[in-house]
Write a structure and sequence with these properties.
About 80% of the residues lie in helices and about 0% in strands. By secondary structure, the protein is an all-alpha fold. Helix 2 (about 20-50) runs parallel beside helix 7. The termini are far apart. This is Ferric reductase. Keywords: Membrane, Transmembrane, Transmembrane helix.
Length: about 200
């Protein structure tokens, strides 16, 4: 009996939000906050992905937990990314065509295009990560690793897009971006250093 009542309760809740005007405040927050939440979530995803490769400190059980958090934050990041795109299109900051086709926005083709490219790469990384078992064999495994590593490039593009595409970033956003940048750079440097020490080559 509860299952039919849940959609009805959700619709009633949304109707109350719309009638009270509270939805306007939510949209105003999401207009500037959804992109920040997406970038922070994806930055945390990168950090946990790096942590999951650690073999010097973490045991196998810890690495499995890190991989689970990595996947969970990745899903959250993609959810916030989809919300960010929907809000920007619905608010008229760009159109659906420019959001789908890179570098076609009339006002800021370069900066909006960087965000679109980053979104596609993140989506490709997520899909191939979900079907990693399909990449068997040395050659396929290398292709998978190369594509997965492209998330760093997408993350950098998203960072530039977030800082430059919209209004001047608020103080909290700048602090969040700076923390993400430093954290990812330090963790990646430690990983590369450990890889050189153990194998003499890059991971």
């Amino acid at each position: 009996m509860l299952r039919p009542a849940l959609p009805a309760a959700l619709l009633l809740f949304l109707a109350v939000l719309l009638r009270s005007g509270a939805m306007d405040g939510v949209l105003n927050f999401l207009d500037f906050g959804a992109g920040v939440l997406a970038l922070v979530s994806l930055s945390v995803t990168v950090l946990w992905g790096l942590a999951a490769t650690d073999r010097m400190v973490l045991k196998s059980g810890h690495r499995l937990l890190a991989q689970a958090v990595h996947r969970g934050t990745g899903v959250a990041g993609l959810g916030f990314l989809g919300l960010h795109i929907w809000v920007k299109v619905s608010e008229g900051h760009t159109d659906a065509g420019a959001a789908a086709v890179p570098f076609t926005d009339g006002a800021r083709p370069g900066l909006i295009g960087l965000g679109t490219l980053a979104a596609y790469v993140f989506l490709a990384v997520a899909v191939t990560g979900a079907v990693r078992g399909a990449f068997t064999g040395i050659t396929a495994s290398r292709w998978w690793r190369g594509l997965h590593m492209s998330a760093y490039v997408a993350w950098g593009l998203a960072l530039v897009h977030g800082l430059r595409a919209g209004r001047p970033a608020a103080g909290y956003a700048l602090v969040g971006y700076a923390i993400c940048l430093v954290a990812v750079a330090v963790r990646l440097a430690l990983r590369l250093r450990g890889a050189r020490r153990n194998t003499g080559e890059l991971p």
